[in-house]
Write a sequence for this structure.
């Protein structure tokens, strides 16, 4: 039942995402980037695991380029099986090519990163709430990945896609910090634990 509820939220979120004009998206992406870069957890991170945003997602390719230039080490997801992904370090966006669902990924010649090396995970979402709960594309990739280590997590969310409360399931992992264009929300400090 929870899955059906989540699907409804996901559908509604995807529809909203599709309706945003490119210029609104661009504005929102720029504001979100500024917000993420304000975070101490970002500034102190050497290795950042970040999804490669595409289509209606946040265009994180700009962020990746910028952060590589600034000397950060960047790892991106590579799907290796049903609901399972690796973190793979890249040094250039040129190392990515289009895979399933149109997602850009590094190929098999790149090794997976040792997860303990990751200082910060930037988490994707279709819809999310202020408590750090999220709904993604529905593969369960991030829930499975995030429980492997006590990662620091940041989730940039367009405020137009922030909902009152996302339907919750036992396996959902709470994100530490939700960032919108004009808010930084420390979810952990709201009395939640993993
Ligand atoms: N940019 C980006 N990369 C990401 C994610 C994301 O949300 N955004 N992910 C976040 O999780 C992971 C990949 N998520 C995926 C989710 C579903 C399928 C997929 O192929 N699903 C179905 C097809 C569904 C359909 O066509 O509607 C399949 O298995 O055949 C692949 C990857 C890792 N990389
Ligand atoms: N830790 C887990 N162990 C086993 N199954 C899981 C786990 N996390 C999620 N799943 C399963 O994966 C499927 C998708 O989960 P969910 O709807 O939470 O995905 P999502 O958060 O939208 O996707 P994603 O994390 O890929 O962005 C569900 O069938 C769920 O039961």
């Amino acid at each position: 039942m929870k899955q059906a509820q989540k699907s409804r939220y996901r559908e509604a979120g995807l529809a909203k995402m599709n309706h945003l004009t490119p210029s609104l998206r661009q504005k929102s992406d720029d504001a979100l980037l500024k917000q993420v870069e304000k975070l101490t957890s970002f500034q102190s991170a050497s290795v950042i695991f970040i999804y490669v945003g595409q289509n209606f997602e946040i265009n994180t390719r700009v962020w990746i380029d910028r952060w590589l230039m600034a000397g950060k080490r960047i790892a991106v997801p590579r799907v290796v099986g049903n609901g399972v992904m690796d973190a793979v370090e890249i040094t250039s966006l040129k190392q990515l090519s289009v895979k399933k669902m149109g997602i850009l990924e590094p190929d098999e010649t790149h090794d997976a990163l040792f997860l303990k090396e990751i200082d910060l995970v930037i988490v994707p979402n279709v819809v999310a709430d202020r408590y750090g709960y999220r709904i993604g594309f529905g593969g369960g990739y991030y829930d499975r990945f995030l429980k492997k280590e006590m990662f620091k997590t940041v989730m940039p969310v367009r405020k137009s896609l922030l909902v009152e409360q996302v339907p919750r399931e036992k396996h959902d992992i709470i994100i530490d910090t939700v960032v919108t264009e004009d808010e930084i929300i420390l979810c952990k400090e709201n009395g939640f634990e993993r």
